[in-house]
Amino acid sequence: MRLLLAIWACKLAIFASRLLGKKGSSMPGQLAFKICPAILTLLSKQVTKEIIVVCGTNGKTTTNNLLASYIRHAGHSLVSNEYGANMLWGVCCAFAEKASIFGKVKAEYACLEVDEASCVKVFRYMEPTMVVITNLFRDQLDRYGEIDMTVDFIRRALAMAPDAKLIVNGDDPLVAQFGEKANRPCYYVAVDEDTGAGVSEAKEGKFCSFCSTELLYEYHHYSQLGKFSCPSCGYKRHTPDFSVTEVSLTNGVNFTLTFGEETTRITSRFKGLYSVYNIALSYAAARLALNKKPDYEKVLSAYKPQVGRMEEFLIGGKTVVLNMAKNPAGFNQALDAVLQDDREKDLLLAVNDLPQDGMDISWLWDVEFERLKQAKVNRLIVTGMRADELMLRMKYAGFAEKQQIKCSDIKKAAEFLVSGETTVCYGLANYSSVFTLQSVIKEMEGREISGK
Question: What pTM does this model have?
Answer without folding.
Answer: 0.87
